[in-house]
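Thread: quick sanity check before group meeting

JM: Hey all, I'm pulling together slides for Thursday and realized we never actually wrote out the predicted structure for the chain we discussed last week. Dropping the sequence here so it's in one place. If anyone has concerns about the input, flag it before I start.
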Amino acid sequence: MRSRLLPVLALIGVALAPSAFAKPPADLADKLNAHSGQPLPIEAIDDSPVAGLYEVRLRGGNTLYSDAEGQYLIVGDLYQNADDGMVNLTEQAANQRRKALIDAVPEDQRVIYKPAGKVKARLTVFTDPTCPYCQKLHAEMAQLNDMGIEVDYLAFPRMGPNSDAARQLAEVWCADNRSEAMSATFRGDSVNASASCDAPIASQYQLGVELGIQGTPAIIFPDGKMVPGYLPAERLATMLDINAGGDS
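JM (edit): ok, ran it. Output follows.
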């Protein structure tokens, strides 16, 4: 009963104090670690819409909520019972953070497949050329581009930044034409690349870890929403509100 009451009380708190933001206690991380008995992988602690409740973000993408003393925790998503329905505040905040981090990646550090005509939407995809479902998604690149969807690749070698996939991705990033090199790599062809290139494979892999990516492909939508795994081109177009058979 107690575990069920905490999320309900959180919802009531949102309704009663929607603008009650307070700076997290400076020692909250220490208190959480003291109560847990072992260090938590805390990335950041922020306020929340609920008075006395603080958002604790863990490395790897998970979020929990704590009181000021680190004694009571809510594990799971925080919702607001808004006039137009339930709003997942945890997901909303995660999308905003994810979007900011993705937007901060310069274009010259991406592998970009741009439509010939008007760009209606952009997807950012963390990829690995040794991943079968990444290969399946890449096979639909022409279809995505034909629908006005730009696809920007970032590197996420699943076996880590020292793996063979990371070496292949580095060759792509160091090629004169990255998109052609990426397509060749997905086909299993060799790529001619500059040996002096400083490819951002390790940093993009770490960014993926920070975003909670555990596999590929990981598809990031324009609003920061992340969808793990393969989705067919027409399904992606529908989720982007693009008419797969004509103009949006």
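AS: nice. The chain has two domains: 2-84, 106-239. The first strand starts at residue 42 and ends at 47.
JM: adding both to the slides.
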